[in-house]
Structures are given as structure tokens and as C-alpha cells.
Amino acid sequence: GEDVEQSLFLSVREGDSSVINCTYTDSSSTYLYWYKQEPGAGLQLLTYIFSNMDMKQDQRLTVLLNKKDKHLSLRIADTQTGDSAIYFCAETGNFGNEKLTFGTGTRLTIIP
Amino acid sequence: ETGVTQTPRHLVMGMTNKKSLKCEQHLGHNAMYWYKQSAKKPLELMFVYSLEERVENNSVPSRFSPECPNSSHLFLHLHTLQPEDSALYLCASSQDGAGRGTGELFFGEGSRLTVL
Questions:
Q1: First to last CA, chain B
Q2: Interface residue A34 vs chain B (CB under 8 A)
Q3: Tens digit of each residue's pLDDT, chain B (116 residues)
Q4: Chain B within 8 Å of A31 (Cβ-Cβ)?
Q5: Four-residue CA torsion sign, A35, B50, B74, B11
């Protein structure tokens, strides 16, 4: 079955870049996603990338996709205290699949 | 405010109790989901309803019983739970199912369940 893996914790100094990594197993994934969960809240879609793209940039966020290695990363430039949250990587299966498979989430802590 | 409302936000129950979690979405979506979030584990999909029909049941124990009376409401009925069922239960909705379009799910804030 599909599997998505992330490290559980990441600490970064305020103002530095954060890089959150994810590996996945389903090579037929149509979309790959990053969701953000702030304390006491549900998950919110942060950004996504279509599987035929290598990179997507959106303001401070850069998503890199390496399909050969099945590796997805999220880079947050100039990390701020408001970026403290849990970041979930997720993938779809084949197009039309109802299911997203999520990872464990990476808890990003910002050091002042 | 994501348009998905879950109640109660916190629930403590004994192993012999029967309780229900409620989810309501105000987004006009036609698919709804229950996820279980436990510490250090992947977010676990429990049930998917599309157009009020259950399309996925991920080998969830029968002590969890979902109900989707219409496309805006989703319930999770709980009975004779175990302490290991303590977790955050998240409801989500989407338009046309997560695998179509951009697949964006809209999540509620969750119901924190503690089983004593």
C-alpha cells in the first residue's frame, strides 16, 4: 500500500530557511500536497504540486519534487514564529482515487 | 473558519459509554471524511462518504460507526471504546472526492477524545 514518511521534529532559528522532507512510495501519485496544522486547529492546504512538475514557488514557499527518488520537500524562506506548526506531506493515488495518504507530520519549532 | 464545524471539541468517556461526534460542512461539498490523528503516527483515514454513500472503510473496528444522513452532516458513533482509541478525530470535506481536481480537503478543528 501507499506509504508517506517524514521526520517528526525540526527546529530552526528565526530568519533561517526551513526544509521539511518527505518520501513516498506510490509512483502513480497525481498530486502531492503540503498541509499545515497550527495548534488547536485542523489541517489547511498550504500548497500542492502536480506530479509532472519539478518545482513550484509561492512567495516564501518552494516545493521541490524528485520523482525518481520519490522525494518531496518544502522550503520556507525567512522562517517566522508564525510558521510554528505541524506540516503534513500527502499524496493521491491514481487520478480519481478518493483517498489522500498522509505522513506523520513534522513539527516545526522556531528558535528565537 | 474553514467552513467545517466539529462538535464537541473535547470528549471524555468511559469504556462502556456511547457517544457521538458530529461534523457539519457549509461549503456545498459532496464528499466527507473521518480521520484519526494520533501522536507520532500517520494521519489515518477511517471513512469516506461520497454523495452520502460510504466509499471507503479502512478496516476500522466496529466500535466506530459512521453515519452520513445528508451531504452536509457526518457523525461518528462511538461505543465500548478502548483507551488506545484516545486521539484527535478530524472531519474533512471536499468537492468531488480528494482524487479529483486539486484534491483539497477542508478540515474541521477536530474532536479530542479521551477514553478512560
A1: 31
A2: no
A3: 779 999 999 999 998 889 999 999 999 998 899 999 998 899 999 998 887 777 777 789 999 999 999 999 999 999 999 999 999 999 999 886 554 556 689 999 999 999 99
A4: yes
A5: negative
